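Field log, afternoon session.

UNIT: design team B
ACTIVITY: writing a sequence onto a fixed backbone
BACKBONE:
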């Protein structure tokens, strides 16, 4: 690992997932396919919600925003990662590393509170259905969607500035496939006390506060569902929340051990595996979860596909010999 003198670092080297050259082409193809499926799934979800008027509801407005966050999230790291699989240099500029780190933290925090907003929407829909249109008005929906972005990008900027105010003189080699906080802290030769504790406080607060909103919402939802006498009614109520509960479980399940521990060599290595899940697996699975388990989305998809097939077939039958 190359040592640096006191001169300012102008670029970093990303080690990536593995240093075995024979695996690089295979990993390139694997993550390229995952990225293309992620683009198709999330863009498709956003377009579908836009095209079908039956999906112009608060739940799907928030879902479209979640798809947008997932799309940006995976696009922040994947192009650089794919390039590095086929490159020998694997470098990223100091400014590029700052930008990547900032966007990752910002979008991660945005997703926390977007999932919390979606849980609140389900709470209102099931526990107070008669006042749903009032409590989830257009203005409320815009505020619920805007807050995660504003807060996420504000706190993300603060965290990124704390990271890049550190002095990096030990090395410029980042043991990760993107510019992440824990391996960057390991490279610093200055006092990291403030940054480490700020990261732990931010991670603990944002994880616990967003998850508390979700858990409290679902506690009320479950209590309301259990009061429904008919089995069909209970099943219908549970089915409207099932997709969101599964998405929350996948997302939070991979994050608890990522930012709530001081960075060591072992945790940095583990964080690369965890990062694969929330950077690639969750964004590619979310569109599948919300489409396969949602009758409205499946109905809207069938309508759009049928409409396009009809438009394509009309010229064939209208042509006269």
């Amino acid at each position: 690992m190359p040592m640096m003198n006191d001169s300012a670092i102008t670029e970093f080297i990303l080690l990536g997932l593995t240093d075995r050259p024979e695996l690089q082409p295979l990993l390139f193809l694997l993550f390229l396919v995952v990225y293309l499926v992620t683009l198709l799934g999330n863009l498709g979800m956003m377009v579908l919600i836009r095209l079908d008027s039956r999906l112009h509801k608060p739940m799907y407005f928030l879902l479209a925003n979640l798809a947008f966050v997932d799309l940006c999230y995976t696009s922040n790291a994947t192009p650089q990662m794919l390039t590095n699989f086929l490159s020998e240099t694997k470098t990223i500029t100091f400014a590029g590393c700052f930008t990547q780190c900032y966007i990752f933290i910002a979008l991660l925090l945005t997703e926390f509170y977007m999932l919390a907003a979606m849980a609140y929407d389900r709470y209102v829909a099931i526990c107070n259905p008669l006042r749903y249109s009032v409590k989830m008005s257009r203005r409320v929906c815009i505020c619920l969607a805007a807050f995660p972005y504003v807060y996420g990008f504000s706190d993300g900027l603060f965290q990124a500035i704390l990271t890049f105010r550190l002095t990096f003189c030990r090395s410029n080699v980042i043991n990760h496939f993107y510019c992440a906080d824990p391996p960057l802290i390991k490279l610093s030769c200055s006092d990291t006390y403030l940054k480490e504790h700020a990261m732990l406080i931010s991670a603990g607060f944002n994880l616990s506060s967003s998850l508390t909103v979700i858990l409290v919402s679902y506690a009320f939802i479950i209590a309301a569902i259990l009061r429904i006498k008919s089995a069909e009614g209970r099943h219908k109520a549970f089915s409207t929340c099932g997709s969101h509960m599964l998405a929350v479980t996948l997302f939070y399940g991979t994050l608890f051990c990522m930012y709530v521990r001081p960075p060591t060599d072992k945790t940095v290595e583990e964080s690369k595996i965890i990062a694969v899940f929330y950077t690639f697996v969750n964004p590619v699975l979310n569109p599948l979860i919300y489409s396969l388990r949602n009758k409205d989305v499946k109905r809207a998809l069938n309508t759009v596909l049928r409409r396009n097939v009809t438009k394509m077939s009309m010229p064939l039958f209208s042509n006269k010999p």
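LOG NOTE: Residues 49 and 55 are 5 Å apart (CA to CA).
NEXT ACTIVITY: expression trials, pending approval
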